[in-house]
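Appendix B. Extra example for self-study. Work through it before the problem class; the solution is given directly after the inputs so you can check yourself.
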Amino acid sequence: MKRIYVNEKWCLGCHLCEYYCAFAASGEDDMAKALKDITINPRIKIEEQGDISFAVSCRHCDEPLCVKGCITGALTVENGVISIDQNKCVGCYTCILSCPYGAVMPSETGAVQKCELCTKNACGEPACVKGCPNRAIVFEERG
Amino acid sequence: MAVNYIYPEYEVIRNPDRCIACRVCERQCANEVHRYDEDLKRMKADETKCVNCQRCVSLCPTRALKIVKTDNTFKESANWSNQTISEIYKQAESGGVLLSSMGTPKAYPVYWDKMLINASQVTNPPIDPLREPMETRTFLGKKPDGIVRDKDGKLKNNLTPQLELSVPIMFSAMSYGSISYNAHESLARAAQELGIYYNTGEGGLHKDFYQYGKNTIVQVASGRFGVHKDYLEAAAAIEIKMGQGAKPGIGGHLPGAKIVGDVSATRMIPEGADAISPAPHHDIYSIEDLRQLVYSLKEATEYKKPVIVKIAAVHNVAAIASGIARSGADIIAIDGFRGGTGAAPTRIRDNVGIPIELALANVDERLRQEGIRNNVSIVVGGSIRSSADVVKAVALGADAVYIGTGALLALGCHLCRSCHAGKCNWGIATQRPELVKRLNPDVGYKRLVNLITAWDHEVKEIMGGMGINSIEALRGNRLMLRGVGLNEKELEMLGIKHAGEAF
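Solution. Structure tokens for the complete assembly:
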């Protein structure tokens, strides 16, 4: 299955992936309209210290702890993609505690949000990958 | 400073309706032009530091930015332009030589743009390169005086070593040090994939790039940096650099600040030591001396590699080329005065040398007259900007061209002409690790391959139009060129007729 992989060597720490992620999730067709004067809450986040930076988003684990821990069945695996049904989420945040990567986070509504590889928006392929200026984030099949 | 004589050259225009304050401009500007004001929750810009490299403009996700030339003006005249006045202010303040990078921005005539190419109509058919074979492969090196046969009448191979090029285009010399590791890797990988050559420049060959040796031309320049046996043996050809188009008669100076880590090891000089290339080779004061170096290098590599001698296009270029053609060199590279550089004194760059078109036409003509044209191949550089320039250069007599600036543009260079500052925002002309990583060679090499592939298609289209199906048949075919807006003397120098004149 195609997953998002991050190559720390080429990450510039420009944070564009975060903004493209927030834009893709907004459902708007104009980035300025979608993101102006707000604090974004993207599903991908840059971790950085000193000269080192890299993007972190859901790894779509083969044995996902978040899905195992979900008490309502809101988190499910669909064709390898770990998806969240926000209508079922009660906000217990067990998944947030159990994710070893910190890739699940609360959304504005209180339900959790996470990277779903842009399968639920109009972007087609992951927006962070398309928007990365240095190909530090790639979407590919690896054995 | 109490009095600020110089007004910033550019203004940063930010569209407040579009700016989402993502701060990518701030993070990506090594000149620290942009900053975020936490209190006002807005981006601000200090345009005094802007070099107009367009990095922020290119990365802004909402196209909220543009850089414009300021319309603030001194009381200019045709004689005293804003630029001239600013330069006097700068020197009055610093007392120093003005430094610049890349090719001259001055409005000298570009003869490529004053030559038009022929095409076939009715009496001789054009060729469709998509349907019929079209050859852009070429070989560089000395060609034999004649065919020699053994006693059985079989052909004897009396060919000296040649460089085989799939397209008559090579990447010109740019040293590791003046450009980054990632830029070099991009050039090397592109040359390998394309079946052409890149040139190390005078900074030596990084140990990681020996694997691309078959597509590498190594340079031996006046500083002899990084020259040793393995270096010479790794390469496909060796180039002796006598001069550079952007700064004829001038040596090089890579500041100690850039001689760090691998650059120091590759150049074989201590970290922090200035790398100074003398203006002359101290062992070359005549063609005879040059011949000694040519043969020393051939001896060291067992006569297996062609030797190139690179000179700047200067007034006496034809006579010098004639000497080089008799020195044992296999290829002459001529660099015109519009060529680029990582750093040169502005006055030299803008005022010394001659246009490559005139130099090429004269060298080719002189070598033909003397019956020694087959002794050497001619490679020209110094602002070859498109496939049309390539075709015109070949028709004027070049065997191949060198591109430097064009290749850097493909890698992201925006010609801000600030290489000498060492803060290239595109990761090309810098050694700062956080900037070097901005050029991912996986992306860079592909863009170079795309550029040369596109030019190859265009060269074939243009040749097909002329009814020519091989680059060899175009070489020195000056009847395929016509001048427009040139005077008698210029036409004579170029050896072409004026547009409107028939065969």
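Self-check: The radius of gyration of chain B is 24 Å. If your reasoning did not lead you there, revisit section 3.
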